[in-house]
Specification:
Elements: E1 11-20, H1 31-42, E2 46-48, E3 54-58, H2 65-85, E4 89-91, H3 110-119, E5 130-136, H4 140-150, H5 154-161, E6 166-167, E7 170-171, H6 177-183, H7 197-209, E8 223-225, E9 231-238, H8 243-265, H9 275-288, E10 293-295, E11 302-304, H10 305-322, H11 326-339, H12 342-367
Length: 368
């Protein structure tokens, strides 16, 4: 088992953003130009994404919350400045609020083109934006077993981060429409329970052989040992406009990994949560978000999201306290209690001023 330093394992974040026109508020296919400008400031920490309507930013591994906050602030500032030079704005929303109905313009990468060949029209509207959290865990065998422990909590992370109620000009009635779009793919969503790293890799290979997964070496499940980095990566969450929320969510994920790693070190391979029930819990979390109720990980019962979150903090409290992260996470939960998640925030802005106001509020929060 891996042992962690005093500060705990490092944590890093990837964020995906939309590029929008400040007048029409529609997404614009300017990703390559914005990335080229931003790289003059922050180098390879920015890149393109699946569609040309998107860009991605990545932080370095950070031990302290202040380091992560500063890294996110600097990376967003560079992307915001680059977008403005192209006459556009950076927007942290899980889906395009005001978008296009034609098939998305896909980025220039062999993997993206191969995905279109394999999944076809399923990718026509796949301009979705996530936040990915990486926690340092170089032991890949342990990472797979830690993932077993994290699986039951994924629906709650979906609810807490829900920030995509609108899609291409329509209120979907869901809190995280991004999760619904991803849920139609057989290779996305919660990973299967795995007995070992070999078992995990066999399952990925079987998915590739059916052509349900593009590449077994790079699975896109919502928890995975990253194929290139010594990290466990959690990918279930919508991108968030508020940096403080993103930092708190990353710290919460780190505490989950630390807590689960300790259990794995004691010989606990993780609870066997039924995959069908877990996917149903995902769907409910995507529909109702933070404001609703969902499947409670420890008990299997239906509980309000706020009650589940209290139980989650209780589960990882020792790790949060040990690394000085408890205050940031409890402040995040207070914000959720008072103003709701991103989905509630988007709908509140829409009630005040329509869809253009939704985009304007997201743009302002992303830049802040």
């Amino acid at each position: 088992m891996t042992t962690f330093g005093i500060q705990g394992p490092t944590v890093g974040v990837e964020e995906e953003y939309l590029l929008v026109d400040p007048l029409t508020r529609t997404v614009e296919a300017a990703g390559p130009r914005v990335v080229a400008r931003a790289r003059a400031t922050v180098g390879d920490s920015v890149s393109g994404e699946f569609t040309r309507y998107q860009v991605e930013g990545r932080t370095e591994p950070c031990a302290r919350s202040s380091d992560l906050r500063n890294a996110l602030t600097g990376m967003r500032a560079a992307l915001c400045a680059a977008a403005e030079k192209e006459g556009l704005r950076l927007c942290a929303s899980g889906t395009p609020v005001v978008g296009r109905t034609d098939p998305a313009e896909v980025g220039d990468h062999w993997r993206y083109r191969a995905g279109v060949d394999q999944y076809r029209a399923m990718l026509d509207d796949f301009a979705v934006c996530a936040v990915h959290v990486h926690v340092h865990l170089p032991d890949r065998e342990a990472s797979v077993l830690v993932g077993n422990h994290l699986r039951p909590w994924l629906p709650l992370l979906v609810a807490m981060s829900s920030n995509s109620p609108f899609h291409q000009g329509h209120d979907t009635g869901y809190a995280s429409w991004r999760s619904v779009i991803r849920g139609r793919f057989p290779c996305l969503g919660p990973p299967p329970y795995a007995e070992s790293l070999d078992d995990h890799e066999r399952l990925a290979t079987a998915m590739e052989e059916t052509e349900a997964m593009l590449d077994a070496a790079t699975p896109f499940w919502d928890i995975r040992p990253n194929p290139r980095l010594p990290t466990l990566e959690v990918r279930a969450m919508d991108v968030l406009p508020d940096i403080e929320d993103t930092v708190a969510l990353a710290l919460l994920v780190r505490a989950l990994v630390v807590t689960a790693a300790a259990r794995v070190g004691q010989g606990d391979p993780g609870p066997r949560v039924c995959s069908e029930v877990l996917r149903a819990a995902y769907w409910r979390a995507a529909r109702d978000g933070w404001a609703g109720s969902g499947v409670d990980a420890p008990s299997g019962g239906i509980l309000p999201s706020a009650v589940q979150a209290e139980r989650l903090v209780g589960f990882v409290r020792a790790a949060l306290e040990e690394h000085g992260d408890l205050d940031a996470v409890t402040a995040f939960l207070r914000r959720l209690a008072t103003r709701g998640s991103g989905a509630e925030r988007q709908r509140a802005a829409g009630q005040r001023g329509g869809l253009k106001a939704v985009v304007d509020d997201l743009v302002a929060a992303t830049a802040r």
